Amino acid sequence: MQREAERLEGPVREAAALAKKLGLDPYPVNYWIVDYDEMNELIAYGGFQQRYPHWRWGMTYDRQQKQGQFLGGKAFEIVNNDNPAHAFLQISNSLADQKAVITHVEAHSDFFANNEWFGMFTDDPDAAARLARHGETIEEYMQDTDIERAEVEKWIDHILCLEDNIDQHQPYTPLSPDDESSDLDTEEVADELGDLELSEEVRQEVFDDEWLEARREDDDASTFPEEPERDILAFLRKHGRQYDPDAEKAVEMEEWQKEILEILRTEAYYFAPQKMTKVMNEGWASYWESLMMADENFADGNEFITYADHMSKVLGSGGLNPYSLGLQLWKFVENTANRRHVVEELLCIEGITWRNFHDTVDFEAVLSVLEPDDLVASVDPDELDAIDPSDPRIDAEALEAARDGEIDLDAYPWKIFTYEGMCERHYSLTKPENRGFISRISMEELEQISRYMFDDSKYESIEEALSEVDYSVGWDRMREIRESHNDVTFLDEFLTQEFVDEHNYFTYEYMQSSGDYRATSTDYQDVKKKLMLQFTNFGKPTIVVSDGNYRNRNELLLEHRYNGVSLDLEQAKDTLERVFELWGRPVALRTIVKEYDDHDLEVARRRDREPEPTEQGLEIRYNGKEFRREDLEWAEVEHLAATDIDYDTKPEEWLA
């Protein structure tokens, strides 16, 4: 391991330097060399070396190990969101893989450091130490002779069923004992009276039935929360109880239960940004890794084939692939920003308008002018004296070092360039795969660009119009987006019809009439909605606390924000049983379900069309012993149904 660490010192140092040249601003990264088993353990622990004791880590470890043994899966890297970040390199990886991991990690660390959603969690930069403290605290409770270990594990299980039921769009706010509810409900008052062992005469004199009834009437006004609460874990931490099966009633949580609940809530908020930005983050890392490894030859000739083979497998893996989707979207963002800038300049040429753009512009001439000049396209070590150090694209200090033989330009030609030079060197529109991107612009976009142009200056030729083109527009725009967006807003804003057509995206649906799946649409709105359903609220149903004093009995009423996708009712029941343990009293869940009439199904099959479902309100109630289902009138659940999903919400509004 020491030898491997020494071998990688150079690539680590140069990758960090190259990342800065490209305009990235990552956290410092500490790299650790680990073996195969340690890597599997780190993956199971979510990228950290120490977590609280729980069976799910072992389950994840076993699954990861079997994936490697029997399915050919391979773990290349894992990096955590911390300052400094910690990345782990598996000692058995080839040098090509290690270099790929290092460049990938530098980009991840840049994303951690600059995306605002990661900044919402906490000002404490040492996440590894925080999670280690959490593990030690829970371990102490498990070893406490006054607490059964099995009870601690069961309590953790209850909480983990709700770990995604937080308000991830709000900054994390820790809860203190002062945040706990101190109100006594009517049932508790009756219990308190019983504990006082008062005579019936005194009880009736001081706490008569009229007083208790008046309290019940006051309780009618104590419905809470005032607005639906998304952070169910926080609500249960403030107002929840535990159910005592011996006493058959709700009692106060033990201190250890409260602390563990808050610990796991804290960790849910810590990991939320990673879940919210999976496509953006992996796509961002894949983009810069590919540029460094391939375009800047960070993978040398002996390593490139191995790198290309492994990268193609990562991008080509099945299912919803965040690496592939993210990389495609970031490239589309870059190309679109660059194209808009170029088109704005071209529309200032005499005789060119948005109406005649495609017929008038010589696109080959445009691309010829945009090609990086020889100075930045390639570096000849024998011609360094001819380079002007005052050129804004040239790093004068590095140029002087290169002239003195202190820089190996054959291996690191990028060292003599500034950010401006790197932007021109890697300009996206002139790459072979993008050479048709300018000519593909739609008339609608041309008209839109033209409508908001206020520059009346005119050029005589393409050469004149593009003489001072800004090569940094694409990368600058990418960094702006990286700062404020998450996956939902990223997809909403940049997944266009042009993108869908270019990459052949389509939607598919399960057909009730035929019992199979069929392609249904290539419209970008349908593709976008289908994708965003998998990212909104981490792809999980959105459940909120509607009433903590439901039926005026301190029951808990949860509501499902129905978006056209029905709940799995069996899973919903399993979860309600867990919620009951954290509330201590009956819990109810309201939702909307789809029902299909058998006759309509048969008619639909014969006519090869889809039947229209009936949407029905439903309430499931669990009292600790049994479930009760009740159909609801539409008026009682109408507010749960989304007429259309409104994703037109900007990150700055969420972060306000």
Please explain how this structure is put together.
The protein is an alpha+beta fold and about 650 residues long. The chain has a domain at about 1-115 and about 275-315. About 50% of the residues lie in helices and about 10% in strands. The protein is built from 30 helices and 12 strands. It has a 5-stranded mixed beta sheet with strand order 8-9-10-11-12. Strands 1-3-2 form a 3-stranded mixed beta sheet. Strands 4-5 form a two-stranded antiparallel sheet. Helix 27 (about 570-585) links the parallel strand 9 (about 555-560) and strand 10 (about 585-595). Helix 4 packs across helix 13, helix 7 (about 150-160) packs parallel to helix 12 and helix 15 (about 320-345) packs across helix 23 (about 475-485). The longest helix is centred in the middle third of the chain and has 25 residues, at about 320-345. The two termini are about 45 Å apart. This is AbrB family transcriptional regulator. It holds the Pfam family SpoVR_C.
Give a quick rundown of the structure:
The protein has 656 residues and is of the alpha+beta class. It has 30 helices and twelve strands. Strands 8-9-10-11-12 form a five-stranded mixed β-sheet.
